[in-house]
Structure formats: C-alpha cells, structure tokens
C-alpha cells in the first residue's frame, strides 16, 4: 500500500500537467493562398497552427502576391484576414527579395514574415503564453551607392529539338534585355529572336516549314501620380509568318488606374489609350495591292483584376482601328475567373475571343495546301477563340498539417 499511494499521487500530478497542456484544438485554422510558396516547408517550420484544405474552414486567411522589381527581384504583399473568432482583424505586410537570393533564402524570408504576421492573431489564443520575441539590433547604415544606377541586364539563349523517322523539329530563342526601374521611371529595351524549322517526310516527298522572327521592342514610362502614367512603346520586327520584311511601330500611351498603383497586387482597373504609328514593308504584295505603307491607329485597352478570398477574376478588353479606313479594326476579349463556390468546391473558366478585321499584311493570292498544313503563312479570318474550364471538389478531413516526403 505504501508503494501504491506515491504512484497514485504521481499519476494525479501527471494528469494535471497533461490537462494544462495546450493542444492543437486551441490553435487557429490557417489557409494560405500562394502560388509560389513551398507549402511543405511552411507546414514543417510553422507547426503551431492547423492548416486546412478549404479556405471556408480558416480562422485566418492569408494571401501572398508579388510583383517584379527593377532589380529582377520581387516585392511581396502578404494580406491576413481574420475569420470567425478573428473577424474584424486584418493586416497587410510587404517584403522584398532580390535576384541573388536562392529559393531557400526566399522561402526563409516568406516564413519569417508569415511568423510575424500571425503573432497579432495568436495573441487572442492560449498560444500567446508561449510566444517569445527577440530582436537582433544592428547598426543602421546608409544604403550603398549603386554603381549600376538601377540598371539590370539579362541575356538568354535556348533551344530544343525532337524528331522521329518521318519528322524532326528544331527551335531556338535568344534575347538581350536591359531595364531600369525607379519610383519615377520604368525603362525596358529588348532585342530578341526565334528560329523554328520543321521537316515532314511523306513517302518520297519532304515538306519544310521555317519561321524567323527577330525583333526589338522598348518601353519608357513616367510616373505622374498614384493613378496616372505616361509611356512610349516602340519597336521593330520581321515576321515570315505575317509577310513582313520589316515593321516599325511607335505607340505613345496614356494610362489611368482607378485604384492606386500600390494596390495592384490585389486589384487593378486600368485604362490605356494608345495613338500609334506603323510603317510596314511587305515581303509579297498584299491583298490591298500594297508593298509598303505607313499607318496611323488608335486603341483603347481596359484591364480589370481582382484577387480576394473567394477567388480571383480578370477581364481584358482591347479595341483598335486604323484611321485611313475605320473598317480595318479589331476587338479582343480575354477573361478568367476562379471561384470557391462552396466548401471544397471550386470552379475555373478561362477564355478569349477576337473579332479580326485588320489583317493588312495578308499576301495576294491563295495559300498553298503546304502553307496551310504547316502553318507557315497567316490566313484570312474574321475571328478566333480559345477557352477552358474545370471544376474540382475536395471532401474529408479539413486538416492539412502533416508533411510526408516519402516517394
């Protein structure tokens, strides 16, 4: 009896300690919407919350979006929205990565800011007692002088090939890009080119398709205010597919964004007005008996983008016409929407449609059957379209905490 009593007291004491432990039932449910995050890493390192599969089960919904910076880095925006017991709590954080950071360094920085962002919400849970805060104090130093003056240069060369006994394909692409981004200016200059060669063997006959598309494009944009920008886009290119020995274009552009540019990672509603000049030199005489011509055109483009907890939506509408003949016009529609309709149920649709009445470079005469089959020549059409849609449904356990990297 004397031995059993101390053991009984020990069990009571142990059960008291266990009852005081915090379980994951006390932890908030977290859903992260991020297309570029390493979620296995985040779930492994930030393991004091419950990760749920559906955003409707979340106490805290986190959306992470990003935009490219002038130095080929990224500026991330992390928005945290409280739900259920956290309703009314909302926060937004920003952080920047640079081009020299590895994927591991980027995911570590994302984790750090995610940890900082969740502290405010954890303060309202029993987990708050176990939060410790430390600060590494470093000497504040002025930013170093940038010897490149914010200019970034990038070159690329790539190619691929494939084939079999009756077919072979060779593709190559190259480019050289120079750009500079500051709060006041955005500059971009690019030389690029591509070469595509396809060979088909049918019996004793061989068919060859070759496309060459070298070109140059540039853009200069001046920030005017939180809503207005003024830009100039210009370029030149050659296209064997579009019957162009040389095409030069200059497009002054005025842009107005209904929402401030600072909100562009979450929402945009932009209008762009373009007044452009084109000079075309054709390889073959066109269906309008032109060998070369200069053209004036105007265009209006409308872009709407929205990223929210319920999903995302994007709509683009662009209309243009030439001044010498208003019947030479074009209207393009493109849109996509992704919805979280019900718990576990999502729906996505993408599509585009174009009304085409401005094919001024079409060569006179009928295209050969070889040109049609190999798509070496642009063909006359009054419209084009594309689209896709899909649904998905997930059910079962709402939790997504466990990481198992085997196989």
Detailed description of the structure:
The chain has 407 residues and is mostly beta strands. The protein folds into 2 domains: 20-129, 2-Layer Sandwich (Double Stranded RNA Binding Domain); 151-393, Beta Barrel (Porin). Helix content is 12%, strand content 51%. β10 and β11 (228-239) form a beta hairpin. The relative contact order is 0.10.
List keywords for this structure.
2 domains, mainly beta, 13-stranded antiparallel β-sheet, 407 residues, 4 helices, five-stranded mixed β-sheet, single chain, 51% strand, Porin, Double Stranded RNA Binding Domain
Report the total helices. 4
- The CATH topology label of the largest domain is Porin
**Level-2 CATH architecture of the largest domain:** Beta Barrel
Radius of gyration equals 29 Å
Overall morphology: globular
Number of separate domains: 2
